[in-house]
Amino acid sequence: MCELLHYFCDCELQHRIESIVSFSDRFVSKLQYNQKFRYNELMLALNMSAAVTAKKTKEFRSPPHEQINILLNFSAGEDCPCPVEIQDELKSFHEELRLHCGIPVEEEEEEQDTSIKGRLLALLYKIKGPPQKTEEEPAETEQAAPSKRLLTLLRKRV
């Protein structure tokens, strides 16, 4: 039985990894195609000054890791050469992945506490969920048998 469960878990994990790799492959292909298209447009435009040409070709003269950072910098709200359709596709995939993993999608994040304590608490709340206030148990429950207390606690959690 355990081997069967391990097999199903391995198959599910393999499927998840394959879907992420497949999305990544399609996404990078679209980014590269768009980048090549923009580069060809720049090379065909001969009437630009040297300063404008240098500014527009900076992305293409950068090392690959800086190029991808420039393309994916749209989450910071900066001017990004990445088309809106590709940005939306990545955001959509990210939201679907978070929902599938059980991480709630936050519509708008409130002002965050940037202190170490605040960041650790935010991380803890993301993992365990926000703290829940416990209700005062009636006095009779305190004197009840241990099995009754256990049943009461289990009912509250469900």
UniProtKB/TrEMBL annotation:
This is Ryanodine receptor 3. PANTHER family: B30.2/SPRY DOMAIN-CONTAINING PROTEIN, RYANODINE RECEPTOR 3. The lineage of its organism: Eukaryota, Metazoa, Chordata, Craniata, Vertebrata. InterPro entries: Ryanodine_IP3_receptor, RYDR_Jsol. Keywords: Receptor. Transmembrane segments: none annotated. Residues 1-152 form the Ryanodine receptor junctional solenoid domain. It comes from Ilyodon furcidens. Pfam families: RYDR_Jsol.
